[in-house]
Automatic annotation (TrEMBL):
Domain of life, per lineage: Bacteria
Coiled coil (UniProt feature): none
Gene3D superfamilies to which the protein is assigned, alphabetical: ACP-like
Keywords assigned: Phosphopantetheine, Phosphoprotein
InterPro entries, alphabetized: ACP-like_sf (IPR036736), PP-bd_ACP (IPR009081), Ppantetheine_attach_site (IPR006162)
Pfam families: PP-binding
Name of the protein in question: Acyl carrier protein
Stretches assigned to the Carrier domain: 12-97
Lineage of origin: Bacteria, Pseudomonadati, Pseudomonadota, Betaproteobacteria, Burkholderiales
Amino acid sequence: MASTPRNASLRNTVFGIVRTQLLRVCREHQRDFNAEIHLESSLIADLGLDSLSLVEAVVAVEQAFGIDRLPLEALNEEHAETYFTVGSLVDLCIRHAAIGVDANEGMRT
């Protein structure tokens, strides 16, 4: 993705929405969850998502963006250092959501 102010703003907005959904799922599965979530955070190693909670998180993200289905196999195609990271999930959402994102509401526009 080209680094322009608009793209950076879009990525930050999408990250905020993804982060909110991940926090909710992580806290449902780990009551004492208090880790910081960054773009570089591993969904599995850093956030502690297992297969069930990962699916729940992806479904929550899909619903937040109105995406029918995110192809999780695309996360496998990322470079090893970005494998299953929050950033790779954000980028996947951007590629598969043909929507505008309202930064104030986090909803489709």
